[in-house]
Amino acid sequence: MGGTRPMRIGIVGTNFVSDMFMKGAEAVPEIQASAVISGHREHAEAFAGKYGIPHVYGNLEELLDSGEIDAVYLAVPNSLHKEMALQVLKRGIPLICEKPLVPTLADARELYACAEAHHAYLHDAIVPLYTDHFQILKENLARVGKIRHVFFSFSKYSSRYDAYLAGKNPTTFRNDLCNGCWMDLGVYTIADLVGLFGKPESLCASSVMLESGVDGASAGILHYGTFDAVTMISKISTSYQNSEIHGEEGTLIIEKPSLISKVYFRGVHSDETELLTPDDANSFGDQLRDFVTNVKAGKSESSRVPHALSLAVIETLEQCRKQAGVYYPKEGKTE
């Protein structure tokens, strides 16, 4: 990778989030999707045809050996993240790994240690934390004055829940794939809260468990000493509430915590709500620009999401999940 040639990305996985990646890449000319693989070759070929990707390979080793990529975007089931990420990082190849990076803090530390040992850049793809809109949110925190209460909500009826209710086994609700509500939606609200306020002093969490062994809906209270932050998430119902940060001098209102699509401020004595963010946001594009810039500059981590922040998010998410009774294969409930 040199000169002005775009960074060639090999895409691993062809689900809907890979379509989001391609949409984000449209706004980042420094990136070019050059190859793709999937669990089913016909899916990879269809994806390549849809986006004009020149190379299709049968497995990860073929992709890594091809000489046609400069970096990898990994969008596979959560249970496969660690194993496949290690394969990429041991080659010294920069990696964007979809959220959640891995289910446990121990696994995350292993990945970052591997990345450091092989001089490979590891990007934890928690989209909202890389956005310009999140930076605007942070910059305006002081305007609310003394924070009294925080509420982050992300509940959306899953397009696959009807299939689950019909007795099918969609990946979204499979325990063996390390899925469920905390891992899919909770990672966003927890990332936003930890990104804004750091790790909580303590927390409590609960979940509505499904027979498949994953949480369909969950809630958590993160204690920050002078205020509590509440998060409510669900894949089996829908909420139309915005997220809010309440202070003695005003309130910040956040649309879509997974993207930070818009941020508003309203003072306690004001009748007007002020829009703080522009409308031309491309949240996925923001994180891809961050990735390309850092890799080309030879940096080891992002200033927006340094390793310490990524680890803090994973640790807090793991604590919420386990306190709520959500465990995955190889995890003992006596931990």
UniProtKB/TrEMBL annotation:
SUPFAM superfamilies: Glyceraldehyde-3-phosphate dehydrogenase-like, C-terminal domain, NAD(P)-binding Rossmann-fold domains
UniProt xrefs under InterPro entries: Gfo/Idh/MocA-like_OxRdtase_N, GFO_IDH_MocA-like_dom, NAD(P)-bd_dom_sf
Signal peptide range: none
Domain annotation GFO/IDH/MocA-like oxidoreductase: ranges: 143-252
Gfo/Idh/MocA-like oxidoreductase N-terminal domain mapped to chain residues: 7-122
GO molecular function: nucleotide binding
Superkingdom of origin organism: Bacteria
Pfam family, one: GFO_IDH_MocA_C3
PANTHER family hit by this protein: PTHR43054, SCYLLO-INOSITOL 2-DEHYDROGENASE (NADP(+)) IOLU
Protein name: Gfo/Idh/MocA family oxidoreductase
Species annotation: Stecheria intestinalis
